[in-house]
């Protein structure tokens, strides 16, 4: 990556992560806190925009961070419709679809493109979003289901998954496009995906309830059992099991994996069973993605916060290293991934993409 000055923005529920890069070096980073009471006064996410920008600007001023000479500003791209991976220019359509959550998923990440564009315009920089949450590159065979008219779409930690794959490919002296990987993000949510030739050709929809159990997510459950569970219940509350109230929360009321492992280490058999079940389900999903790649796997890559836990890594290695080498990349590379995506475009190594505003899968012609 050239010696470019890149500012990255990643909004969360009550804070916004920011980072400034000069080339590959992160020269400043912070988690900008936003007063929860102030945020509650805004009726919509869009109404928060000016307040968040002002709060970010104040923190930059307090830390004497000068954005003059900025080459690019990158914002997390929530709210967009399904698209191929890559680095996208933030244009009026991106701004409209993200701020109004065109995909129906209302999340603070929807503010990312708007914040990035405002800072970019202030300093005469380019504005991009890199591998937004709704990157969907499924191969055709991964689309069909056993219900006519119902097709699979996926929501994954695309930004971190792809950056982990790109970094590992570089460590092998190869291009991402020349490798096959099973890549996992194991944190508050768990994404498991098959990457072939630079595309995520299959994966589990973590918003829709697929894949392994996670701290706040139920994972895959037998349809008949789920229908029985729904009897007499509010469907909106049941749907929360997919993203907020399932997994560890459903069983124990806690979402903290560290707390669960402490309970397990202190002899709590319930906590131990939950922890080991989650890892067991992760390994099953890895195996299925390896089958998608016909066993031609250059590496099984583990990223995300829970990968700091050596027991988890060891269990995955024991179950899966017969498939391919298991490599751990603890933590997240989201800010680095956004900066790297901008750098690849500015270097001319990758073409900037234009968001179409149309889902990249519209069904099969024969159907």
UniProtKB/TrEMBL annotation:
SUPFAM superfamilies: Actin-like ATPase domain. Its EC number is 2.7.2.7. It catalyses: butanoate + ATP = butanoyl phosphate + ADP. One of its GO terms (molecular function) is ATP binding. It is found in: Cytoplasm. GO terms for cellular component: cytoplasm. GO terms for biological process: acetate metabolic process. It comes from the Bacteria. Signal peptide: none annotated. Keywords: ATP-binding, Cytoplasm, Kinase, Nucleotide-binding, Transferase. NCBIfam families: butyr_kinase, PRK03011.1-5. Belongs to the acetokinase family. This is Probable butyrate kinase.
């Amino acid at each position: 990556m050239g010696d470019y000055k890149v500012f990255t923005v990643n909004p969360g529920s009550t804070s916004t992560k920011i980072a400034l890069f000069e080339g590959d070096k992160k020269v400043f980073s912070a988690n900008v806190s936003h007063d929860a009471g102030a945020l509650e006064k805004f009726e919509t996410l869009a109404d928060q925009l000016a307040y968040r920008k002002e709060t970010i600007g104040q923190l930059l001023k307090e830390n004497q961070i000068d954005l003059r000479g900025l080459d690019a500003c990158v914002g997390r791209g929530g709210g967009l419709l399904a698209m191929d991976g890559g680095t996208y220019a933030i244009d009026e359509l991106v701004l409209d679809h993200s701020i109004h959550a065109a995909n129906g998923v209302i999340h603070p990440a929807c503010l990312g493109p708007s914040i990035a564009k405002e800072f970019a315009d202030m300093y005469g920089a380019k504005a991009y979003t890199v591998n937004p949450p709704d990157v969907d590159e499924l191969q055709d065979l991964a689309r069909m289901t056993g219900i006519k008219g119902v097709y699979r779409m996926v929501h994954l930690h695309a930004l971190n998954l792809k950056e982990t794959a790109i970094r590992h490919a570089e460590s092998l002296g190869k291009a991402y496009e020349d490798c096959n990987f099973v890549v996992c993000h194991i944190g508050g949510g768990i994404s498991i995906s098959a990457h072939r030739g630079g595309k995520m050709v299959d994966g589990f929809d973590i918003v829709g309830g697929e894949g392994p159990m996670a701290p706040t997510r139920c994972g895959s459950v037998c349809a008949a059992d789920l229908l029985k569970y729904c009897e007499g219940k509010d469907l909106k509350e049941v749907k929360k099991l997919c993203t907020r109230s399932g997994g560890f929360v459903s069983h124990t009321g806690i979402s903290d994996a560290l707390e669960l492992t402490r309970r397990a280490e202190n002899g709590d058999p319930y906590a131990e069973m939950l922890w080991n079940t989650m890892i067991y389900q992760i390994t099953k999903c890895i195996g299925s993605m390896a089958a998608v790649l016909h066993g031609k796997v250059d590496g099984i890559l583990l990223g995300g916060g829970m990968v700091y836990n050596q027991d988890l890594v060891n269990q995955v290695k024991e179950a899966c290293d017969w498939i391919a080498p298991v490599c751990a990349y603890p933590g997240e590379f989201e800010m680095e991934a956004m900066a790297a995506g901008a750098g690849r475009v500015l270097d001319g190594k990758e073409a900037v993409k234009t968001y179409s505003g149309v889902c990249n899968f519209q069904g099969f012609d024969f159907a």
